[in-house]
Amino acid sequence: MMAPQQKAASPWRGQAAYNSTIKSNHSPIDALLSRLEGVKRTGSGTWRARCPAHGSKSLSLAIREADTGATLLHCFAGCTAHEVVGAVGLEITDLFPPRPDDPAYVGKAERRPFPAADILRAIGFEATIVALAGAAIIAGEPFSQFDKDRLLVAVGRINAALDAGGLNHG
Ligand SMILES: [Zn+2]
After folding, report:
1. What residues are neighbours of ligand 1 (ion), with CB under 5 Å?
2. What fold characterizes domain 4-105?
């Protein structure tokens, strides 16, 4: 049977007070990396480290910070994410950023679910569809069921894009 607490005791002892500070004030990636040994940055938002769950000296743990702020990890020796975080005194939920309604979130950067440029691109494309449909109507061209359906899709997507941008629409 696995005994994460026992395993965690020797290599990570003496860090408890330091770690509890990090756990409450830092991002999930910082909380995890600060508890690992042999951490080596391998790219933008990616690291390798010794896996605390199976005790090998090789850097068999791959870590990645997702765009959402969540921390993804994979042990090439086969340890589960649960075993890895358990071995350093964390829980799976510690790999994810606080929810927006979490008090810890207050005062952090303004929430922007989607980059404005993406929203503008989406609206711009759909606006072109609407403009073409409008031009066809003004010119008295026949308007097929397909055209009507596509126009409805465009209207829906524009509204969805406005929602994503946090804008109200009537
Ligand atoms: Zn492992």
Report:
1. 51, 53-54, 75, 77, 79
2. DNA Primase; Chain A (3.90.580)
Q: Which position has the higher pLDDT, 165 or 35?
A: 35
Residues paired with residue 53 on neighbouring β-strands, in sequence order: none
Residue extents of the structural domains in the chain: 4-105, 116-164
pTM over 0.90: no
Distance 54 CA to ligand 1 centre (A): 4
* SS3 at position 136: helix
Ligand 1: centre distance to CA 18 (Å): 24
Which long-range contacts (C-beta less than 8 Å, at least 24 apart) are formed by 15-20? Answer: 16/89, 19/89
- Locate 129 and state its tokens: 């569809």
Reading phi first (left if > 0) and then psi (alpha if -120 to 50, else beta), residue 45 is in left
Question: What are 44-58's pLDDT values in tens digits?
Answer: 999 999 999 998 899
Contact call for residues 43 and 27 (beta carbons, < 8 A):
no
